[in-house]
Amino acid sequence: MSIRPPGPLQLTDRFLTFADLQLVQLNRNHCFQHLAVYVSQAGEKNKPPLVLIRQLSAAERTLPPADADPELRRPAQERRWYPLRDGELILGALRADLVPAEEWHPQRDQQLRDAAAALSHGLARDLECLQLRSALDQQQTQLRTMVHQLRNPLSALRTYAQLLLRRLESSSEHRPLVEGMLAEQNQINRYINALDSIGQPALSGRQPEPAPLMLPPDNSAANISIKQQLLPLIERAKAMATLQGRLWYGPEIWPAWASEPSRGEGTAEIVANLLENAFRYSPPGTAIGLKPLPDGLCIWDGGPAIDIDEREAIFQEGVRGRRGRERAGTGLGLALARQLAESNGGRLELCVEPSRLAAELPEQGNAFQLKWPGLKEPE
User: Fold this and answer.
1) DSSP category for residue 265
2) For 37-48, what is each residue's pLDDT tens digit?
3) Domain extent listing, the chain
4) Which CATH architecture has domain 226-371?
5) Which residues are CB-neighbours of 145 under 8 A, at least 6 positions away?
């Protein structure tokens, strides 16, 4: 694995402690005025290429950065530098300044070379560890996002299969086929739960249950309107509400912008996440709806308003409100929805009085308002 100098500087406490021990060991005879470890800084403008991370000085003064140290602008017989290398890459340097009464001799020079070699190895492994940790964090984030999105089509299929099963007579020859579909969906869901648990702490005594999720439709066709994007989601939300015994309020009138070629990149995925959030966390029996607005749209529910201290926190990855912590979920839906909206120039905000957005909506509840640039603002 190739090692890169850190930038911005980031090292573990383990390496810094190791560097301190090396300096103390070198100066056990108190023959050095200064011993210092510098690390190369990469990717930062207007900053020194060598950053001081540890020092041991007889004068007990803090050394300035390498490029700002006036003492380093003149040659000095008492000072030597030992590079910290990983192959051809210079990771930093060990600086050694003898006290005036001391002289250089081969044994002392060899000790410093050995210390520089040990620091080089430790620093290279430390940087490698940090890079691996960063890569692992990225992979875990990607895995969580993928698992979150994989649940959508499976849950949509389950909803339709359950509705179909309700419509079949008990003697129908098709019931075993539909029941088999549901059994296979449950098995796949267990695999997804296992993937979701990778790298996560075990929750003793609690087995997450499948939760309702919405499926963003395939909108690969060019210039598809927002209305065309959302109609399949609206049908699925209606089916989900029927299955759960909820009231569902879909759009009756669409504004003109909804039928124009899409100006809302990612609208279906955002709405899918918002609907999933509403079905997952609102209390059973709570009404849910989607309402187009003159300047955007909102997804609302008539449940208790989200607590005031959580209204921004819930948009952070992995954060869920207090009322939803005992339910299965990753806490990614709202974070993904806001990130996608903002990455395309839009806004996603929470309004805890839906009636403020439209008079026919309930006074109490939660409405997530999605706005895209270029849509007509209300007069």
Assistant:
1) T
2) 999 876 555 555
3) 13-134, 138-196, 226-371
4) 2-Layer Sandwich (3.30)
5) 332, 336
